[in-house]
Amino acid sequence: MQKLSISDIISKIEAEDCFHAVASDYSFTIKIEDYVPYACAAVHNGHQFRKELWPKCLHSEYERWYEEDPKTKTMLKPHPIVISGMDSRFEYDLNRDPENAIYEDAWGKKLWKEPLTEEEKSRSLVKHQNFYKVVFALIKKLEQKFGCCVVYDLHSYNWKRWDREVPTWNLGTSNVDNKRFENAIEAWREQLSKIKLPNDIPTTAKINDTFQGNGYFLKFITNNFNNTLVLATEVAKIYCDELGQVIYPEVVTAIRKGLKKQLPEHASDFYNIYSY
Asked: What separation in angstroms does the CA of 132 have from each of 6, 17, 158, 219, 224?
C-alpha cells in the first residue's frame, strides 16, 4: 500500500492506474485492482479518533465502536474497487453532509465536554471534503468508461436495539430511482438472502424495513451522476456480540465469502441491463 496525496490519488484514477493507497493524512484507503463497472464502500469502518479530541469526548471507546461498522471493509476485501474510511464517525461522519458531519449529540447523548474549536472542526472537515473529491473522481471515471455503475455501500446496524424482529439484511432505497432500478434492487435483495451463515443465523433480506437509505454518500453520488445506482446495504451485527465487543470471525468470513459470490454476479447483470 502506498501513501498518496489526494491529487495523486485522483491523477491515478484519471489515468486508469491500478493501485492500493492510503490518503496522506491516513483518513481513508482506496484499492483499485481493476477498472470494473462497480465499486464497494465501507465509509463507517474506521475507528481512529484524533488523540487531541480524547479529553473532550464524553463517549467511551466502546460507545464509539458500538456505533461504527467494524469489519465492513474486511467483508468487501475480495472486490477490485474498495474505498473505506479509517476515522471514526465520532470525529466526522462521512455519511452526513459537511454542515452536519460533526456531531454535537450522538444517539441521545451529548458528545463533547466542551465545544470543539473552529480549527479542530476544520481539520476534520478537510478530510471529509477530500474523501468526496476522490469519490467524485472515481464514479466519474467508471461512468465514463462503462456508461453505468453500481456502488455497494455497506453498513452494519445494532439489531438488539429493536423491539421487533428485524432482517439480517436491509436495503435503503428511498433516495434512488426505484422505478428505473426496481429490478436491480429486488435482485440484490434476493441475492443477499442466499448468503449462507453459520450458527443457524437466518438470512432474511428486506427493503426499507429498518433504514431507508438517507445517507449522504448515497445522495452525493445519486445527485452528481445519472447512471449510477447506490445500494445502501445494512447487515445486522449478527457477526459480533455488540454488547460485549467481541467479533465472531467465522461469521465475518461467511459474509465475505457470500458477498464474493453474490456481488459480482449482481454487478454483471446490472451492467448488462443498464450499459446502453
From this structure: 10, 19, 27, 12, 11
Domain ranges across the chain: 2-274
Task: Fill in the amino acid letter for 10.
Answer: I
Please state, in angstroms and rounded to a whole number, the distance separating the CA atoms of residues 11 and 133. 12
**Burial classification of residue 2, based on how many CB atoms lie within 10 Å of its CB (0-12 exposed, 13-18 middle, 19 or more buried):** exposed
Determine contact, residues 151/41, Cβ cutoff 8 Å.
yes
Mean pLDDT, residues 197-221 taken together: 94
Instruction: Give me the amino acid identity at 97.
Output: D
Q: Whose CA is closest to 265, among 21, 26, 36? A: 36
Check residue 160 and give its pLDDT: 77
Architecture of domain 2-274: 3-Layer(aba) Sandwich (3.40)
Tell whether pTM > 0.90: yes
Q: What is the average pLDDT across 3-12?
A: 98
Residue % of the chain over a pLDDT of 90: 85
